[in-house]
Specification:
mainly alpha; Endonuclease Iii, domain 2; 1% strand; single chain; Endonuclease III, domain 1; two-stranded antiparallel ribbon; 14 helices
């Protein structure tokens, strides 16, 4: 009788298929939340239309700049390195010094100037502009004795740090490609091209995005200190967002709004950087002259 009672109270085994399903569910992990996409959704929910409003407002001051190529990508890379933590006009002087010290070979391809006419400086560049001409002899720049190269680019500031960075970048390109050309990047998807560039030591998302946006018009959003400052004040990027993360955050903001899209990255970058230089200064911003002030959280912490 005890044996029969024990058997009658035992729980029946679950079917094998049910056990497998339960185990699979327990092993299944939730996909990690993309912080850029989550922020874009949050901003669209609580402050709808903020980015289109900002771009429309800035267009009243600066128009809507359209992309056109400035320099070849290797020249853009070196010029961007020279401009790091330096005034753009000093970076131009250093680049022109490179041209003079390491003149291009006779058969070099001619490249356009870098907004040499101030009336056409619609790209947010803060210098006077480079004159038209060919790129320096990059092989000679890479092989130059380091002390010599430091002296050549000294007008750009921080030459002891920038000279080895330039030579390392050129060496990486040559070793990977056999020459110094980066034109192949224009045939790659934007994020893949950015990833290729960021494998070069010392090249981050900002420098890579500058090269790809300005040389090829690829839909990437460089975020420098001016863009970051203006964006944080308006509330386009959150207080906890890193400057590095803001590059991808902006791509999500542009993609999430059907009235914009990634192709508006050039206008977004150029007008935000110009606004940071001309109106939204780090100290004493001219808020009374800013067309974005009705929705700026720097002016009103409860702005819509």
């Amino acid at each position: 009788m005890r044996a029969a009672s024990s058997k009658s109270t035992a729980k029946p085994d679950r079917p094998a298929a049910a056990r497998r399903g339960s185990n699979a569910t327990s092993r299944r992990k939730r996909r990690p939340i993309d912080p850029a996409r989550a922020w874009a959704r949050t901003l669209n929910r609580y402050r709808p239309g903020l980015l289109p409003f900002t771009l429309d407002a800035l267009a009243t001051l600066y128009g809507r700049p359209t992309w056109q190529r400035r320099l070849d990508p290797t020249s853009e890379l070196v010029l961007t390195i020279l401009s790091q933590n330096s005034a753009d006009i000093n970076a131009e002087r250093a680049f022109e010094s490179l041209r003079a010290a390491y003149p291009p070979p006779p058969a070099s391809r001619h490249i356009a100037g870098h907004r040499a006419d101030p009336r056409h400086r619609a790209d947010g560049w803060g210098g006077k502009g480079l004159e038209e001409g060919a790129a320096p002899d990059w092989a000679a720049v890479e092989r130059a004795p380091l002390p010599e190269l430091i002296e050549v680019i000294r007008p750009g500031g921080l030459a002891p740090q920038k000279a080895p960075r330039i030579q390392a970048s050129l060496a990486t390109i040559r070793e990977a490609r056999g020459d110094y050309s980066l034109e192949f990047l224009g045939e790659m998807p934007a994020l893949e091209a950015r990833m290729w560039l960021t494998r070069i030591p010392g090249i981050g998302k900002k420098t890579a995005s500058v090269i790809l946006l300005f040389c090829f018009g690829l839909p990437l959003m460089p975020v420098d200190r001016h863009v970051e400052r203006v964006s944080r004040r308006i509330g386009l990027i959150g207080s906890k967002a890193t400057a590095d993360g803001a590059h991808d955050l902006y791509l999500e903001l542009l993609a999430a709004d059907p009235s914009l899209g990634p192709d508006r990255a050039y206008e977004t970058h150029v007008n935000l950087i110009r606004h940071g230089r001309q109106v939204c200064h780090a100290r004493r911003p001219a808020c009374e002259a800013c067309p974005v002030h009705p929705r700026c959280r720097f002016v009103d912490r409860k702005a819509p």
